[in-house]
Design a protein that fits this description.
The complex is a heterodimer of chains A (225) and B (224).
Chain A (H helix, E strand, L loop, with lengths): L6 H40 L4 H15 L3 H11 L9 H26 L3 H9 L4 H31 L11 H12 L2 H29 L10
Helix pairs in contact in A: 1-2, 1-4, 1-7, 1-8, 2-4, 3-4, 4-6, 5-6, 6-8, 7-8
Chain B lengths: L1 H10 L1 H35 L2 H15 L3 H11 L9 H26 L3 H9 L4 H31 L11 H11 L3 H33 L6
Helix pairs in contact in B: 2-3, 2-5, 2-7, 2-8, 3-5, 4-5, 5-7, 6-7, 7-9, 8-9
The chains are: A mainly alpha (225), B mainly alpha (224).
């Protein structure tokens, strides 16, 4: 049984866990900013009439969604040096997370834009607005509202996915647990502590998602019917 | 040089097939048991006692709130400390099945909640028992909402199965990792591994999309 569960060792390693937590948080923030950029770009391409823009964006989204993040991560980690691009593990990890999450973000934004009732578009056309005015003044402000809760959901997924970066030895939260497990042979202490920290992040983001739904005057975004 | 690498890759073909087999077996077992347990959990979450419902809700939250990699490590390293001996394969199956069951539980709950209250009241008035109500009235209607995300969840399951390579199971991803140590061409190796996953996952994604369109059309919602 776990009668030797050592809180003292956890205490000793707390600075390491703290560092890991901080790394996980900021690399998630950067990756999410990257994912937003990638997502907006993909979505803009996807909504164009020209096939030359639409097809590559769709293909990219499908390929990313149909393959595991871990394989994408290894593809970059083992593949980039082959192209003569040597980057630190952390940068490779952030890149992989951004490129992966970007595909999901693109779909979320697209769903948000398509959820705007057709009448809104028609009314703005009838008011003589140009394409850009329509987007900026009518469609995007409304779409923005609907996309916030699912975007926070994607942020939750991304924070959890960032644990995979420990497999290419990025010193983030899960890596701290692995170190405790291998240095002291205390996997229980290591991984339970790690899980607790992730839960903390999860509840923060989940709370934020619920609150944002309320601020934006959306119902609980759970059931559609 | 590329020729040599291709030759060397061809030599890894049997290994790759074994890896693909492992990925398929893992995913299939977790799919079957995860679906069964997930439906059970979902039904109990809605119709079970208050205590049971709370316990299930807390467990599902716990699983949804932690990375799958951490769950695998916990199961693989901690169950033995509790006196349960298990190999990497069993640990992988347990972790994947549990994850799948928890996500399917949420999908089933959303499906059941989407059935109009009048349906349940009508069934109640017709004198159907609780179990009959669930089986004959609520579940068949809930399936319309459940089916598209369920197929989507299967895609997630197959993709998540790649994470079990972290505890040394020789699945498709692990094979890529092993091969890349010998054939130093990460782009090619993991491109091929990616193709392996793509041919399994992409048809499922298309199926999920089709189901979604059909189900929402049947539901009388207008898609713009």
């Amino acid at each position: 049984m776990l009668e030797n569960f050592s809180f003292r060792t956890i205490g000793e390693y707390l600075p390491l866990f703290g560092q890991g937590l901080v790394t996980t948080v900021w690399l998630s923030v950067i990756s999410f900013a990257g994912a937003l950029l990638v997502g907006i770009l993909l979505c803009a391409m996807n909504l164009q009439r020209s096939r030359a823009l639409r097809v590559p964006a769709k293909a990219y989204i499908d390929v990313v969604r149909a393959t595991p993040l871990l394989v994408q991560l290894y593809f970059l980690y083992f593949g980039l040096p082959r192209l003569g691009i040597i980057l630190p593990e952390l940068v490779v990890g952030v890149l992989a997370l951004s490129l992966n999450s970007g595909a999901y973000v693109a779909e979320i934004i697209r769903a948000g834009i398509l959820s705007i009732p057709r009448g809104q578009v028609e009314a703005s056309v009838a008011s003589g607005m140009s394409y850009l005015q329509r987007m900026r003044l009518v469609i995007l402000p409304q779409a923005f509202k609907v996309t916030i809760p699912p975007l926070l959901g994607q942020a939750i997924v991304m924070v959890k996915d960032s644990a995979l970066l420990s497999l290419i030895s990025v010193a983030e939260l899960t890596r701290a647990g692995q170190l405790l497990a291998s240095d002291r042979f205390m996997p229980a202490e290591g991984f339970i502590t790690v899980a607790a920290f992730y839960l903390m992040l999860y509840y923060c983001l989940k709370g934020l998602a619920v609150l944002s739904g309320r601020w934006l005057g959306l119902g609980p975004a759970r059931s559609r019917a | 040089m590329i020729w040599q690498q291709l030759e060397s890759l061809a030599g890894s073909y049997p290994l790759a097939m074994r890896g693909l087999g492992m990925t398929v077996v893992l995913s299939l077992i977790a799919l079957v048991f995860g679906t069964l347990i997930g439906f059970g959990l979902g039904i109990l979450r809605i119709g079970g006692s208050r205590v049971l419902s709370t316990v299930i809700g807390a467990w599902v939250d716990l699983i949804r709130g932690t990375p799958f990699l951490v769950q695998i490590f916990l199961i693989f390293f901690i169950l033995p400390e509790l006196g349960i001996k298990l190999d990497a394969f069993t640990a992988g199956i347990i972790a994947l099945t549990n994850l799948n069951a928890c996500f399917i539980c949420e999908i089933v709950v959303a499906g059941i909640q989407s059935v109009p209250k009048g349906q349940v009241e009508a069934a109640l008035a017709s004198g159907l028992s609780k179990w009959q109500r669930m089986r004959q009235v609520v579940l068949p209607q809930a399936m319309r909402v459940v089916l598209p995300p369920l197929v989507g969840q299967y895609v997630l399951l197959i993709k998540d199965s790649s994470v079990v390579s972290a505890i040394g199971l020789t699945d498709l991803t692990r094979v890529g990792w092993l091969v890349v140590q010998r054939v130093p061409n990460g782009l090619l190796v993991f491109f091929l591994v990616g193709v392996g996953y793509f041919v399994v996952c992409y048809p499922l994604i298309l199926l999920a999309r089709r189901l979604e369109k059909r189900m929402s059309a049947a539901h009388g919602e207008v898609q713009l």
